[in-house]
Design brief:
- It contains nine helices and 14 strands.
- The longest helix has 18 residues.
- The protein is α/β, with parallel strands linked by helices.
- The strands form four sheets. Strands 5-6-7-3-8-9 form a six-stranded mixed beta sheet, with helices on both faces. Strands 2-1-4 form a three-stranded antiparallel beta sheet, covered by helices on one side. Strands 13-10-14 form a three-stranded antiparallel beta sheet.
- A hairpin with a 2-residue loop joins strand 8 and strand 9.
């Protein structure tokens, strides 16, 4: 539930079912597996950060959630139904793609009029307020807007349909730091204004740490970690290790120590009995200290990369 430092609360949202639920979800492109055996049960009232390296399957998962592509196997439901099940379901989901697609030849005002015609739940007051706050001239053609302004316009179009779920596929990836800061503030304000959940895909961990309270780490087409950020940070710790031990194979067969490494047996609840730089436990082991979000993510990504190499 939101409401932490810098995060507007959306606790008044009535919808409590899972916004995204996947079971044995696979997606293949020919012989290449983009997603493999994905299991997710993501609660509502969250801003979800979806992180992972290039090629991890992030965009594929979001395209599946929007109904743009079909799974190869398994099931996926969004807001309790098959993605893009019908027009009514489409209206409940807003999508902002990475390139913030807008029509270069149309003015900002023409985009708003188009949004009103295409979306039965369109909130024109919200749209015009967001445009004014973003400083977008109504008469300016979208092709003459800056990258940050186009991203703001795309976010406005998605939010003004008042969806229950906003899906954003790396919308700030190409923005400069100031434009990205402005966009993230607008995202928080928009989510709070419409009472929606949101999924934000990003390779910028600072952005995720700033606005998200639920985390999904994806690598190699598989979910490596998922859960509330507060809970994940409370159950992961950094265990100091000698620099000379980094990458060295221990004699007892346990995984090598080193920054970004996690290893050990897999249990039903994730990784257990792990060794190395980052460990998962209910309480801090002797000599261990709390982990930062970036350390946590990099540890799971490093573990996934090591497993991939060993396979």
């Amino acid at each position: 539930m939101l409401g932490g430092p810098g995060r507007p609360s959306i606790s008044g949202m009535a919808n409590t079912h899972a916004v995204l639920r996947a079971a044995a979800l696979d997606k293949r492109y020919g012989r290449r597996a983009a997603l493999r055996e994905v299991e997710l049960d993501v609660p509502a009232q969250r801003i979800i950060g979806l992180v992972g390296p290039n090629g991890a399957g992030k965009s594929t998962l979001l395209q599946l959630a929007c109904g743009l592509i079909e799974p190869s196997a398994g099931t996926l439901t969004v807001l309790g139904r098959r993605p893009a099940a019908d027009a009514a379901h489409l209206a409940r989901v807003g999508f902002v793609a990475q390139d913030a697609p807008v029509y270069a030849g149309l003015s900002v005002a023409e985009h708003l009029r188009m949004g009103a015609k295409l979306n039965p739940g369109w909130d024109d007051g919200l749209a015009r307020d967001r445009v004014a706050q973003a400083g977008l001239p109504l008469t300016q053609r979208a092709g003459r807007l800056s990258g940050g302004q186009r991203a703001q316009l795309a976010l406005t179009l998605a939010a003004a349909k008042r969806p229950e779920l906003l899906i954003l596929d790396e919308p700030a990836a190409a923005l400069d730091p100031l434009a990205r800061d402005t966009f993230l503030r607008s995202l928080l304000e928009s989510v709070a204004a419409i009472g929606a959940s949101a999924i934000l895909s990003s390779h910028l961990l600072a952005d995720v740490e700033r606005v998200c309270d639920y985390l999904i780490v994806l690598a190699g087409g598989r979910v490596q970690l998922a859960g509330d950020v507060t809970d994940l940070l409370a159950t992961h710790f950094r265990r100091p290790g000698a620099a000379s031990d980094v990458g060295r194979e221990p004699r007892d067969g346990s995984p090598p120590a080193g920054a970004g490494w996690m290893g050990g047996r897999s249990g039903r609840d994730g990784v257990e009995h792990v060794h190395g730089c980052v460990v998962r436990a209910e309480a801090a082991p002797a000599g261990a200290v709390p982990v930062e979000l970036e350390e946590l993510v990099l540890a799971y990504l490093g573990r996934a990369a090591a497993v991939e190499v060993a396979a």
